Give the backbone structure.
Amino acid sequence: MNVVGTLFTVALSCCAVAALAALVAPPRARLHLAGWCTAAAGAAGAAAGVAAVVVAGAGQLWSAWLPELLPLAGVRLALDPLGGVFVAITGVVTVCAAIYGIGYCAHGLDGRVFQAVLPLFVAAMLVVPAAASVSTFLLAWELMATSSLVLLLAEHRRRAAVGRAGLWYAVMTHLGLVTILAGLVTFAAGAGGESFEQLRAATLPPAAKTVAFLATFAGFASKAGIVPLHVWLPRAYPEAPSHVSALMSAAMVNMGAYGVVRVGLDLLHVGPAWWWLLVLAAGAASALFGILQAIVTSDLKRLLAYSSTENLGLVLVGVGAAGFFAASHLSVVAALALAAALLHVVNHAAFKTVLFLSAGSVLHATGTRDLDALGGLRTRMPYTTVVFAVGALCASALPPGNAFVSEWLLLQSLIHAVPGAGVVGVVTMPLAVGVIALSAGLAVATFVKAFGVGFLARPRSAQAERASESPLAMLGATALAASGCAALALTPTLVVPALGGAVGVVFPGREVVSGELALRLAGVSGVISPLLIALALMAAVVAVLGLVRVMAARRARRAARLWDCGAGPMSARMEYTATSFAEPLQRVFDNVLAPESDVAVTPVKESAYLVERVRFQARVPDRIEHRLYDPLIAAVTVLGLGARKLATGSVHRYLGYGFWALTGALIVLVVLW
Amino acid sequence: MSVVGATLQVVFVGVGAPLLVGVMRQARARLEGRAGAGIRQPWRDLRKLMRKQAITPHGTGWVFRAAPLLLAGTTLVVAAVVPLVTTDSPLDGVADLFAVTALLALGSVALALGALDTGTAFGGMGASREMTVLALVEPTILVSTFALSIKAGSTSLGAIVTATADNPLSVISPVSVLAAIALAIVTIAETGRIPLDNPSTHLELTMIHEAMVLEYAGPDLALVEWASAMRLSVLLGLLAGLFFPLGIAGADAGPLALAVASIALVLKVGVLGVVLAVGEVFMAKLRLFRVPELLAGSFLLALLAVAASFFLA
């Protein structure tokens, strides 16, 4: 067993120890024991992932075959650089979330079951990218789904919404499992074996390949929260405990992207171009739809959930572009697009951890997630404000943030593809650039809203006024994640060449980027230096500050009243809220969002002119859910209610059913055989 | 020499930007039959503001204080790296068209957050409108960049300008014309001029930029005003450089070439500024909710530019 295997085994053992500790330890020690063991598991997992990326570059892969662990098939594990990237992301996110959980769970979430399931969830997420056979993969996938469902339901006694969110999540995630199962089983049946090695070597008829790809893509897309299968996401994340949301959003949804890359690009060897145009279109649609919903929502965690839909959409744009370029034999830009997609997965995980953890701190301190009721947290929670600002900067793809680097890389790959991509490429690539740009612009507006309305200005409610800073464990974990963001933002030159190894699993023999200080693209011209941008910016700001110091009058700052139009002191009710901030954009995208508003006027008795009360209600529902899922649910409900008549409670009738069913089966058998 | 060129650019933009605003105001005044305040008036205003006491409105914090610094800082970095006088930037890894637009957006975001920090209705309104325009402008910028960079094979501004300078006739191709119109509309939107925003109004129904800076006073306001003048001149200079790169010094240019380039820059930006000012006299501001239509039109032009660049290649 080499170093990767050792570290990976240590990580899984730590998970087991954490789960055991949570079950047997006394309530007082439980939080710390389970939390620190899970954090250790995360650290070991991260090390294993990094080692897999680095060591496999030297040609040493780790794999394991445990035939006695599972009947019939056994458990088959292998960690290549592609899987290693995802294991490393899961590990780092786990470290932050587990440490955060120690502070966050102290009130009400320190139950035995919740604490024991969390490490199991982590273990499942570590095994999914390391699985090397269909049965192992499906088993880990199902464990991941079930354990996350249990974690999501942690607070179901406090809020009724948790139960509904759990139901949506359970249904969507298991329908996804069914399609993945169907797709992989079709694939394995055609290949005559179920290990990934056999699948990779198999030659299937094109129809079977297409079935396998489309079925697995549907399942993976639902896990990644891709439109129109995203409906569980904006329900589940707000209702889950915040560190679980962080784990789900930063680590679990990545598995959807991993699945598409592994099955589509690696096992099915790219396939026809139209598959990847489909992936690209689905990604582009979710990027736009996700960010549009994010900007109009005023629930902080729901906003972050929709932002996940947007970011995974961008990842799928990259993956789709990579597949399309590979199918068009443009290997240089294909490798570049895949590297951009993987880098965006890493970056998204980093800033989403920061954002969900600090949103959790806000929820912990104020008890509300409603941006319209927040505000003024800058003075009350100064450290949380700073880390949220870092996360928001990174999420809005502005320099010096980390998402800027991955979006830049993605745009470069799209631009450099055009001369060789044919007519289809020429039509799709500029549109893809437009979609990425529009979603980036809207993301800027979204996070200016989230940060500006949520944290700046004055508190809009009593809860926000009473807020106080979070405990040390929560702050420390969030700061750790924020420093990870900063590291990714300033020195992507350390990360991207490593990702080149993961890209090499799919497109072998290609160097993607080079350079120490600046990111220099290999094969096409393009160079950017995030570190230099940050340094230049800092130098310019210092220079301006110096200039002001020299030029300006040397008098102390004076405090003064705000301009209130002479109408007396400003009150918090006069501030712009999240809803009013998003109103112009909501109006611009009226046709897409279809907002609902309702005005109810109550007149004074016996008068048509005097009004007693006017009630105004505005809501922006999720239109896809409204148009697609509501009719479906209604139809199923009608069917279910109709079917009730079949079961009246009469034993005679049931015996009749049995008789006719048996007779029917016999007739069918006689006719067919 | 590249450092000298970049320093020259910063000096030119820093000193010349208020003068450009002065020229534009003077041109408008003359056309409207007024005498005007003279082209040095913006500098006199800045000097006056610098001497005043800095003010912290109640309830504002570090975001409000840092915003003008960041706005001016981003603009200075952009002024140093875009090819105005020389195509040879000392900060090679920054002078990418995506990076430059993102840096300008960062400045806008800083100002919008500063405005939200005041907690006044004006601040929120300005920030909300600014972000709306910014989000809608972004696709046009990137897609027209796309069109221009196909020709040069790179998104580096120096490379694009060099490619155009080597082949000046390529400017009259449909690609460049369409991209130029699209980028011109974007420039107007980014700098807050008529018909998208009126820089000289204080009427709450119409204003975007002014609403955001209402609480700033003294040196802070001077910084904001200076930075917005610099943004205007940088964007006009960039527009001139991308589509009319005559005179811009290439790599390893001598002092003479730099001097010629400087004169060319002043002339080009001055002419563009006067054209913009003259245009403003004859136009009315658009309603805020008509702005997206204009920006959608510019996006369409940018898309057509990309298509043209492929089919004409």
Remarks:
- The first helix of chain A runs from residue 3 to 24.
- Chain A touches chain B through 86 residues (CB under 8 Å).
- Chain A is about 70% helix and 5% strand.
- Chain A has a mean pLDDT of 91.
